[in-house]
Amino acid sequence: MPALHTQTTEVSYSYLGPAGTFTEAALKQVPDAAGKTWHAVNNVGEALADVVSGRSTAAMIAMENSVEGGVSATQDALANMPGLRIIGEYLVPVRFELVARPGTALADVRTINAHPVAYAQCGTWLNQALPGHGHIPASSNVAAAATLLHGSLADAAIAPIGITEHYPLDVLAENIGDNNNAVTRFVLVSRSRVIPAPTGADKTSLIVELPDDVSGSLLGMLEQFSTRGVNLSLIESRPIGDALGRYRFIIDADGHISDERMADALLGLRRFSPNVLFLGSYPRADKQAIEFTSRYDDAIFVEARQWLAGLLDPTPEG
């Protein structure tokens, strides 16, 4: 049975909660979300289900991390929930700190509560500062800290910087991540069919399946972009799930669907692939203008179509 769409005039947003998460920090960057209702949810699937059902106008979800790569839960959810579009992109620096119950010293820490991803990103510091420590996995970065106040067996937790604004904990160490340049990319997803206007610094997201599992199929897909001067900033494979060896590709391409080179690439993909899912064209968070050579200017594609039309025109010239 298809999901029922709840009609509501209230503008609201879903995000991975509770308060203090990196996802909340991303949502705070959305001007239109200020002063609106925010729904804290437990996972990506729940956030997107809120949008599909109409409970929320849009959802903020993590798409990619500069250290860990693409977020597979998000990629799979977007592939299996039709009718969703990405309308915005936001970047959040990933910074961690070690927190503990008041009165705890760093020398007292024997066991740490941490989300597995956060734990992995702080491995170097942990092994140097707390050799021999134990690890208790947490469901989220905020939950790792919150459980310290509710009977956790851990002595400390890895949490986002600023967590002490939400929980009465002490900071034992700041900036404990291995990579100070780590960034998580978030996207705002809605059911809106209105595509944001091109800015010259845009990104187009797609999910594409190969037509068959034979030599050269992947190259054939990539050529739809390369022959039109479209650069790819992300390409990751995810299993389709219906058989071994069957994969779909999550793609971020530089440019906007209204750009002639991008539109021509999408037409090529549509002819090539049995399933192309357009996830949206939207402004890049870094506002970096897309660079390409002049032979891929819009005018070149327009002139080529006019040239072909002229060849088909039986009317004599002059």
UniProtKB/TrEMBL annotation:
A GO CC term assigned to this protein in UniProt: cytoplasm
Gene Ontology biological-process entries: L-phenylalanine biosynthetic process
Prephenate dehydratase domain location: 12-191
Catalytic activity of the protein: prephenate + H(+) = 3-phenylpyruvate + CO2 + H2O
GO MF, any single term: prephenate dehydratase activity
Superkingdom per UniProt: Bacteria
EC number: 4.2.1.51
Domain ACT per the UniProt entry, residue ranges: 206-284
One Pfam short name: PDT
Involved pathway(s): Amino-acid biosynthesis; L-phenylalanine biosynthesis; phenylpyruvate from prephenate: step 1/1
Protein keywords: Amino-acid biosynthesis, Aromatic amino acid biosynthesis, Lyase, Phenylalanine biosynthesis
Site features described as Essential for prephenate dehydratase activity, chain residue numbers: 184
Protein name: Prephenate dehydratase
